Write a sequence for this structure.
């Protein structure tokens, strides 16, 4: 990842993780649109239909996203995504907390990431 881009495995984890989180309270069309745009821009051949097969694991994500930087980017992106529909549900927050735990992100840092993500817009 010397040019700043994600590897195919990292893209797959991001996409599967974002899809998983969006399904925690039902995928809103805005969430679906953002995930599909990510897939198109990543250009790895992964499709929306691939994501609908499921298969996200927070522990696998922690193994693939090895750096604190990538883990923090994932969490911030995920928070911004799930807030795109105007609703941040308890199920979404709980699922994000489980991922943060797998990433060794403590509650204080998670709170900081939530604050930072609240200032971001993915649209």
């Amino acid at each position: 990842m010397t040019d700043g881009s994600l590897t195919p495995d990292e893209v797959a984890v991001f996409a599967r993780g974002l899809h998983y989180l969006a399904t925690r309270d039902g995928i809103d069309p805005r969430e679906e649109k953002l995930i599909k745009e990510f897939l198109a821009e990543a250009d790895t051949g992964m499709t929306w239909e691939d994501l609908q097969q499921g298969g996200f694991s927070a522990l696998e994500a922690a193994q693939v996203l090895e750096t604190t930087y990538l883990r923090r980017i994932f969490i911030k992106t995920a928070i911004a995504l799930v807030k795109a529909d105007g609703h941040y549900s308890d199920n979404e927050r709980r699922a994000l907390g489980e991922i943060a735990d797998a990433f060794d992100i403590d509650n204080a840092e998670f709170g900081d990431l939530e604050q930072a993500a609240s200032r971001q817009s993915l649209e």
